[in-house]
Amino acid sequence: MQCRFIGQGAQAVCTIMGQVANGMDPAAERRKAAVVVHKKSYRLSDLLEDWSSLHLAGRSDRYAVDALLTLRRVFESHLGMAAADLDRAAVVRAVDALVRKGRSAMARQVAAYGRAAYGWGVKRGSVATNPFITLPLPPAASRDRVLTDSELVAIWQATDGAGAFNSIVRILLLTGQRLNEVAAMTWTELSDDLSTWTIPASRTKNDKINMVPASEPAQKILRATPQSGAFVFPGYRGPFRGFARAKAALDASSGVTEWRLHDLRRTAATGLQRLGVRLETTESILNHVSGSRSGIVGVYQRHDFAAEKRTALDAWAEHVAAIVEGRAATSNVTELRSSRG
Questions:
Q1: What does CATH list as the number for 149-337?
Q2: SS (H, E, C) the chain
Q3: Residue 32 above 50 pLDDT?
Q4: N or C: less crowded end of the chain, CB within 10 Å?
C-alpha cells in the first residue's frame, strides 16, 4: 500500500492498514513493546516492595518482615536492576556464598523467600521466569539445636535491660513455653502475686489449658514490666511482633548465630531432663500430650503436676542463674526425682 503525499494522521492510518494487510496485529505489538519497557523499568526493589505490600499483608508480621529484610540484604547490589535480569547464576552465587560461610539455614531461607517472591511475580506477569526454582541446596538439618552454656550466658547478658523483646527472650528460657504464647501473654492470665501463669486452651497448640508456675526470676521480670494495656509485652495495636529486627540485633550483640527463638524451649526441656526432672513433669510443663501422657495413660491420668512443675521450674531458674553468674548450682536433683514418692 502506497502512503506517499498524505498528511501525518493519514500516514499513521495508512501504515497501520499496511501492517494489517501483512498479517500483523499493531495493537498486540504495542502491548508487547509496553510490557518489555515495563519489565526493564520494573526493578528488583519494586518486585519486593509489591510482593510485601500486596501479598504478604496476609502473612504474619514476623514472616513478612524477615522475608523482605533477608532478600534485600542478600541481593542489595541487585536492587536497582530490572527484576527480570536477576538470573539463576546470580542467585546460585549468592546462595553458595552463604553456605560457604556456614549459614546453610539462611541459604535455605533465601531460596524459599526468593522462590515465593518471584513465583508471585510470574503469576502477575511482572517477570517471565523464576530463578529460584530447584536451587542446589544442602539438606536441612534436623531441628535439635540446644544452646550451650556459653551461648546461654551471651544471650542472657545481651537481653539485660528494659524492653518487651528482652523480657520475652528470658521468659521463653525460664518457662519453656512457645513464642506465640509468651508474646501474647495478658495480665489477666497471671495470678495476683504473679506466681502462676495460666494459658487458656484457646491460646495453646493442643487446645488444652496449661498452668505454668513462675519462678522468682520470672516473677522479677513480670514485676518490672509496666502495665500499659491488656498485653504484658505490648506492640503496635496488639502484642509485640517485631521479632525479625529484634532477633537480628540480638544475634549481633550476643555473637550467637544460627539459632531460633524456639530453640530456647528445647534448651529448657533438655535442661530439665539433665536436672533429673521426671519425663511426665517435663511434658506437663511443655503442655505435651504425647509420650508418657498419651493413649490410655492420658485418659486416666488427671494429676496436674502443679507442685512438681513449680519445683522443676524453680530448679531450672536456679540452674540458669548459676550458669550466668559462673557459680555452681545448688539445686537438689534427688528431691526432684522423689517429688511424687
A1: 1.10.443.10
A2: CCCCCCCHHHHHHHHHHHHHHCCCCHHHHHHHHHHHHHHHHCEHHHHHHHHHHHHHHHCCHHHHHHHHHHHHHHCHHHCCCEHHHCCHHHHHHHHHHHHHCCCHHHHHHHHHHHHHHHHHHHHHCCCCCCCCCCCCCCCCCCCCCCCCHHHHHHHHHHCCCCCHHHHHHHHHHHHCCCHHHHHCCEHHHECCCCCEEEECHHHCCCCCCEEEECCHHHHHHHHCCCCCCCECCEECCEECCCHHHHHHHHHHHHCCCCCCCHHHHHHHHHHHHHCCCCHHHHHHHHCCCCHHHCHHHHHHCCCCCHHHHHHHHHHHHHHHHHHHHCCCCCCCHHHHHCCCC
A3: no
A4: C
What average pLDDT does range 68-86 have in this prediction?
Answer: 94
Percent of the chain with pLDDT strictly greater than 90: 61
Using one digit for the tens of pLDDT, what is the confidence trace for 134-148?
Answer: 898 877 666 688 999
Locate the domains of the chain by residue range: 8-41, 44-124, 149-337
